[in-house]
Specification:
Layout (H helix, E strand, L loop, with lengths): L6 H20 L5 E8 L5 E9 L2 H14 L4 E6 L5 E5 L2 H6 L4
Antiparallel strand pairs: 1-2, 1-3, 3-4
Protein name: Lipoprotein
Keywords: Signal
């Protein structure tokens, strides 16, 4: 005999999945060419380059990589076609968590 879970036990899981999907939708950017700019606390440009992002995850990988190199910087990604902007404030403790152990 197959037992099914009561619907009330599934409700929190469904709500969590829906919330995650909504948050992921808000964070998406259009793939394409990006201008990546890394600035220090004094707003001095430390590095600037173009990056062709094929997906949201490839762009996030580039931003995390810059935070590993410049743990106290602010990294900005400007989509050159749609002018979308994604800005990440690096955090030294966050960058150290990404280091291999």
């Amino acid at each position: 005999m197959i037992r099914s879970r009561p619907a009330t036990r599934l409700l929190p899981h469904i709500a969590l999945a829906a919330a995650a999907a909504l948050l992921a939708g808000c964070a998406t950017v259009t793939p394409g060419p990006f201008q990546i700019t890394v600035r220090d606390a004094d707003d001095t440009v430390l590095e600037r380059f173009q990056f062709q992002a094929g997906s949201q995850s490839s762009l996030q990988t580039a931003l995390i990589g810059m935070c590993r190199v410049y743990p106290d910087a602010t990294v900005t990604a400007d989509q050159l076609n749609t002018h979308e902007r994604l800005q990440e404030r690096c955090n030294r403790s966050f960058a150290s968590m990404l280091s291999p152990s």
